[in-house]
Structures are given as structure tokens and as C-alpha cells.
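Review box. Two proteins, two foldings.
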Amino acid sequence: MKDKKDFGFGTQIRKSPYFDATVRWGATGFSVYNHMYIPRDFGNPEQNFWNLINEAILCDVAVERQVEITGPDAFKFIQLLTPRDLSKLSVGQCKYVLITNNEGGILNDPVLLRIAENHFWLSLGDSDILLWAQGVAINSGLDVKIKEPDVSPLQLQGPNSAKIMQKLFGDEILDIKYYWFKEINLDGIPLIVSRTGWSSEFGYELFLRDGSKGDILWEKIMEAGKNFGLKPGHTSSIRRIEGAMLSYHADADIYTNPYEVGLDRLVNLDSEVNFVGKDALKKIKENGIKRKQVGLVLKCQPLKAPNTTFWKVTKNDKIVGKITSAVYSPRLKKNIALAMISIEESNINNILKVHNEDLVIEATVVEKPFYDPKKKIASKNI
């Protein structure tokens, strides 16, 4: 095997500021996301899940690249990109938003941060929204600058994350409310710290604003967490699917509209504000949807790993949809899945068949999310 420092497939896939630290702390497998490596294996995905829900994990999510939008018309431009009403978005606040195309299809579902009055970050899922935003800006007539800044997020997630942050930053860090953030300096390391995360658990994101300090930041957090059960980890597919959190390209894509995945609340058609895809989304709402995302419970032996292909779903030998994400939940002791199903077959308790290679599996339509549907864990106050 080559030296671990030489791991890679060329310079076109970037390494994060935390890459060497994750390898040093036991990362054994990586995926590619936003043209970067993301750690996806520290040896045992189920143990990673238990570490997350019982103690805390530190995840390299520098792949969540930021699109920075500044300039006199920055707010107008951000509102042009998303169907969510941003009129009450304050400086220091985050919002989960959708980016839609002219046909109403979802291009991405980032978290938006308002850094200053006319300074915004879009914290992206896997997509090329930087190029989309630059393209939209060309003929918008708005005075904006759009670039990717030197910003690399880490996620500290789990019930002990507050204690670890308190040790690092003091009691004032506990004042940050759910979906708000603060600009903080930690021993010369410039950060934005938010009460957000991609886990459905209580946690924080630390946005490093100087990539040269990635290794130092990682080690500081791991040292602060050593008495609180902190482990190096990766985003948990088990917890994500339990929480019915979208994974772009899996559960939604350019041909998926917000109504199909139950995100009506992120679409504001009533105001006079224009945004890309508004006319199309009006028509979709008027005409109704032909399919929708549902939860499924699969009646079979525990799945050994998440699905890596879309599994066909049938009713009376007719294809009615596909499973987009599936996993075994050791907490629920069930195989759970997110699926896109024809509206006629989406009723709760409907029995369907799932086809995984040569296996035919009975599946029941259930409510989603599968666990903590009100997000009480993630949103609780300290």
C-alpha cells in the first residue's frame, strides 16, 4: 500500500484541511462529494451511530463548500435563488433553504447563513451551485460578487457536544440558539460556530475560516472531548434515514420538486417577490403531484449496509416507484427506507414489494421521520 499521505486519485479531487487528521485518527474509507474526499468509514458504521446518539462524534464535512454572495444587491439575489421567504432572516441566523431551477426542480438544499447585511453563505450539499449562482447572476441586473471562500466546516454532534464546546469556548457558547451562529476566535483560529448539523442530533458546526489551521483545530477539539466520549466519526446514514433527512442525488434531484418530498413550507408563492422556478411551482401546486416520498419498513433480515442502487418498488406486478435510501436501524430493530412512490400507492399501511436483485421483500408504508419526528433532540435548548 502507498504511504497514507499519498492517498488520492489526482489533484482534481481535493483534500480537506482535516484530511491528514482523519487518516491519523483511523479513517479507512472515503467517498467523493463536491469534488472533495469525505471520510465515510472509521471501521464500524453501527458503532459510529451509537457514538453519535450516546456521546459525541467529530466529522470532517469540509465538503460542504460555501458559496459566498456579497455586494449591494446580495439579499435580493439570495431571494432570487430560493423559494423560501427570507424577509425575516436576521444577521447571525441560519435557514434551511431550497435552490430550484426554472422548472421547479430541486438543485440543492443548503443551509443559508447571513454573515452581515449583504454577506451570505450557502452551505452546500453535493452540487455545483457555485456555477449555477454565477450563471443566474449574469443576466440578473444585480450588483453581486459570488465566489467560494476559504471556509471548511467540521461537525461536532451528539448529546455531549455542548460539554465539549463549553470546555473549548466557555459558558457563552451555550447561548447560541438552534439555527443561529456566532463569529468566534479560538486561540488565533477564526471560526463561525452554528447550532446546526446533518445528524438529527444535538450539535454544532464549526466553520474554519483559515484552511492552514485545520489540523490544529481538529486536535484541539479531540483533546477537549477526551473525557466526554468523543470519537472521530462520519455522518451517519442510519441516523439520517431515521430522521428522514434528504441526501441530494439520492432522495432528491433536478427532477424532484419540493412538494414531492414534503417541503411545501420552504416554498412561498404568496408574496410579490420573484424567484427562479416560481411560475413552475405555482402550476405544480395547482395540478397536484403524481408521486411523493414515503417511509417504508422492509420485512426481511437486517440489511448489511445501505443500498448502493435504487431498488424497484411494485404493487400487483406494476412498478410504482423506487427506494432511494435504505438501512437497518439497530435502535428501532427494523429495516427502514425512504422511497419515491406513486401518489395512488402512498397511503399509510399500504403493502408493497421491493425488488433487490433476486430478492422480493414485503414493505409497509409508514409515517416519516421514523424517530423524533418533531426534531426535539436537535432543537433543544441548553
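Next protein.
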Amino acid sequence: MIKAFTVGKNIFSSQEHVLIIAEIGTGHNGSFQKAKELVAAAKESGADAVKFQIVYADEILHPDTGFVNLPTGRIPLYERFRELECSIDFYGELAQYAHKLGMLFSASAFGLRSADELRQFNPAFIKIASPELNHFPLLERVASFGLPVILSTGVSRLGDIERAISCLESNGLPADMRALLHCVTAYPAPETDYNTAVLQSLSMLFNSPVGISDHSLDPAAVPIAGLLSGACILEKHICLSRSDVGLDDPVALEPAQFFQMSKTVRELTGKSDEDIFNAAQAYGYSKDFLQRIIGDGEKKLAAAEKDNYGKTNRSLHYIKDLQKGAVLKNSDIAVLRTEKNLTAGESPEYLHYFIGSVLQKDVTGGSGAVFDDIIERKMR
């Protein structure tokens, strides 16, 4: 049987009560009033928890990473993230509001600054998004907090998950304080790419509670398949309207859709597979369709995310132009997403190796930091 996930006094399992997380992310677009409306909508729609994203552009991207197309035009992706930065008080007040409504509060941390700020609110758990699965300095930091950690595992291979868990455990996070969320890192993600049977594999391999982070457009298909596969956590984006301008609004559920998803999950939780399949047919989901979502259980990159592997994930990047002979300092190199048009660097686990090393050639800001750039280690 798949393990339950414990958050404070709350125990979440696929057989009794599934943890439903309403992912608000940055859908508030910096408006505190809209953020409160989204929290209230999540409560009314049956969610147990709300989750935001504490964004600081410098923790995520280099300014030269590329462009994003928005309804308002084509703008640098870095600048779009800068627009989404909010004060620490913004999230502190939202945490209080969520607690007032009887909801769990959390957020995704994307670097050390956002993690330390999130910790101040004593969140129910810390969320690590799929691209940060290999952000080892971040994993080391959150492991020391003594709080539950939920890791999303999109655009990753088994070895990536294994290294992330090893990092958490070696830095003091007990196995019973982490959970894995299977995810397809595509927006939107095709339902039949989800392969939810992988939950069984992940649970057995890593002795971990498991769940689904769902970016598909259908409100309930993937959550139902997740229940059939043992999910004790379900996360889906929520918005006030899919026509809003938030980055994730086009793939989020409007409140009525989110409510229907939550209602369906609550009605089916604890039922036998046969009863779930029969009920799903009444909701319009054929057994064949659900079985295609469930898949074969092998952990592999989904077709919709293959091209993102190595780009969405973190690697080492130079912050600025540097000349041959420079001794690398902490201010010269960062753990960033490669994204649009930059070249990937070495894995973040080698950050300590680069600091104090000497460049054997000129390098360009934004480019990936690779071993061939280094001629020697400076003795310290």
C-alpha cells in the first residue's frame, strides 16, 4: 500500500482523504486583492491547501535567457518574472488569510532567498518545482528547515529523482517528511502522456507518498487516473478566468471546474477500482481512455516534455562576462534554468568546484559554465 502523507496533524491518503492543492502560483499578477479572491475561490472549490510561487527573477533566469509571447506582446522572459516579484509582506498576509479560512498555506521556493522567506511563514510544506529538482543548494537549505517537502518530478529521469532524495536525506530530512508529485512539464500537458501508474513505481522505489501535479486541460481525467494509481496528493492550477493574463491561466481550472474536480475526487476516494471505473464512465470517461492515462508505469520523459530536458532544469551559468585568468567567485556564477536560447552548464552539484577555480578562456554572461572553461583550482 502507498504511504500516507502527514502534514502537521493532517494525514492524507488515497483511501481516506486526498490532499487537494490549489496552485495559484503567480496568477494574482501582483494584485493582493486578486490573490485573496483566488484563495477564497480555492476554499469554496474544495481545496485543502493553496500554493503560491515566491518569484525573484535573479534566482531563476539570466536576463538573456529569451522571450515569451504574451497577449500584450513579446517580452523578455526575465522581465516577465521581474514583474511577478512581490514583497515578503504580500505572502505573509496571504498566509494569514489562508489560515483564517482554515486552509493550509505553502509556496514554491526557487532559490535560497525565497526559501528563507517562505520559512518565516511556517508553511504546511515546502514545494520544489520540477525544474528545481536538481537545484542541490536549494534542496540542502530546505532539508534543514524541519518541514515536509513535496518534490515535483516532471522533466526528470529516475536518476535525477534519486539524487534529489539522497541530497534531502543526507542533509537531515527524514524519509517520512517528503512526497513525490509525478508531473508532465508541458502547458498544457496531454492527458494520455501522464502514465499515472508510475506512482506505484515511485512509491516502491523511494518508499515515499506520491501524488500528481496535473497541467492537463480536462478537470478530472488525470485526477481519477491518479486515484486509481494510489495518489494521496493532487495539485491543479486555479484561476478566476482562463481568459486572464496570468502565465498559467490558460491551463488552470476556473472555480466551477475546480469544484467539480474536487467533488469527483471526494466521491471516488476509497472506492474499489471497479467502482471508480464505473463511476468515471457516468462522468463521461471511458475505461479505455483512463487506462491510456494510467499507462505502463515506467518512469520516462513524456513525449510533451522531451525537448525541455536539460533546458528547463537547473545548471551552472555565468552571471556576467569574465576574462581568461579570472578567479571565480560566488557572485560570478549561479544555478539557473537554461530555458530558451542559452547553453546548459554543468550540474549544480559541482558549484563548489567552480568557486575558486581559474578560467582558461573568456566567457560570456549567461553561457553555461562547463569544466573545459577551467584551467586549475586556486589553492585556498
